[in-house]
Design brief:
There is one protein chain. Helices cover about 35% and strands about 20% of the residues. The chain is an alpha/beta fold and about 280 residues long. The protein has a single domain, classed as Alpha/Beta hydrolase fold, catalytic domain (Rossmann fold, 3-Layer(aba) Sandwich). The chain has an 8-stranded mixed sheet, with helices on both faces. Strand 1 and strand 2 form a beta hairpin. Helix 1 packs across helix 2 and helix 4 packs across helix 6. The protein is globular.
């Protein structure tokens, strides 16, 4: 399932030295707690008139903290492959005093903003990927699999639902998980609303999920895949033996999971297949 570390290191090096890669920062949402920014990485040769696939990444941090820089290597890789790749900030408890409900609303706003501004960003509004890790994976999943919860005042005619999902050890269920339900004041209705697996449908966006087998959240991936298979929904689960939560942030797994994400995006037609660079 995983390519060799040497080959993956060469890929990462190639991505890091791509000429012409650029990034710009936008305010995608104004809230009572402050503005939220999105960093957009453009590929070499980008033009405003392009219609490129796009990805927006959401950092992890238990809905409490985390940094927008987390997925910068993955965003740079996808930009090097021709995508428009964004990293979105969102409100968290430690900085804005918010709950997971607001985190989900912000993620939906980020997807809607990308689609709403597709013509200016050179993005195909029908090929937008939501991605993230841990809590960020949860809110990415919720953009597709948590009906409602959109921020008030936004243009509901522009969908906040992405066209594909890439989820790194995500929380996929709040409902009936006591430790998580405590974070939302044991609000049962909200717990069900922000439990992506409960809302999975046959026509839900194609999904790639990563879990380490030593992660206590790993059974959530198994539950999601069981339901996905029963529905006839397209999903893939990649597991890393004996790896804990957050394994994808560290070598060699960062390079391995990035390449597996690349393979998935090739398979669904968002990237062109590219041969592994030959080593010197």
């Amino acid at each position: 399932m995983w390519k060799s570390l040497a080959a993956l290191t060469a890929i990462a090096a190639a991505a890091a030295t791509v000429c012409g890669q650029d990034a710009k920062t936008f305010t995608y949402k104004k809230t009572s707690q402050g503005d939220l920014e999105m960093v957009v990485h453009y590929p070499a040769g980008w033009k405003e008139t392009d219609k490129r696939p796009a990805t927006v990444f959401f950092f992890g941090g238990g809905w409490t903290g985390g940094r927008i820089e987390q997925f910068e290597p993955q965003a740079q890789h996808l930009a090097s492959r021709g995508m428009v790749a964004a990293r979105a900030d969102y409100r968290v408890k430690s900085r804005q005093g918010t709950t997971p409900k607001e985190c989900v609303a912000d993620a939906k706003s980020a997807v809607r903003w990308l689609r709403q501004n597709a013509a200016k960003l050179g993005v195909d509004p029908n090929r937008i990927v939501a991605a993230g890790g841990s809590a960020g994976g949860h809110i990415a999943a919720c953009t597709a699999l948590a009906p409602g919860l959109d921020a008030e005042g936004e243009d509901a005619k522009v969908s906040s639902i992405p066209n594909a999902l890439v989820l790194f050890n995500p929380v996929l269920r709040f409902s009936e998980v006591p430790q998580l339900m405590e974070r939302i004041g044991n609000d049962e209705a909200l717990g069900k609303a922000i439990s992506p697996t409960l809302h999975l449908q046959k026509d839900s966006p194609p999904t790639l999920i990563f879990f380490g087998t030593a992660d206590r959240l790993a059974p959530m991936g198994d539950e999601f895949m069981k339901k996905s298979k029963a529905l006839g929904h397209r999903a893939e689960l990649c597991t890393a033996e004996d790896q804990p939560h957050g394994f994808f942030n560290r070598p060699p797994w960062q390079a391995k999971t990035t390449q597996r994400m690349d393979d998935f995006l090739v398979a669904i037609g968002y990237l062109e297949k590219k041969p592994v660079p030959a080593l010197p």
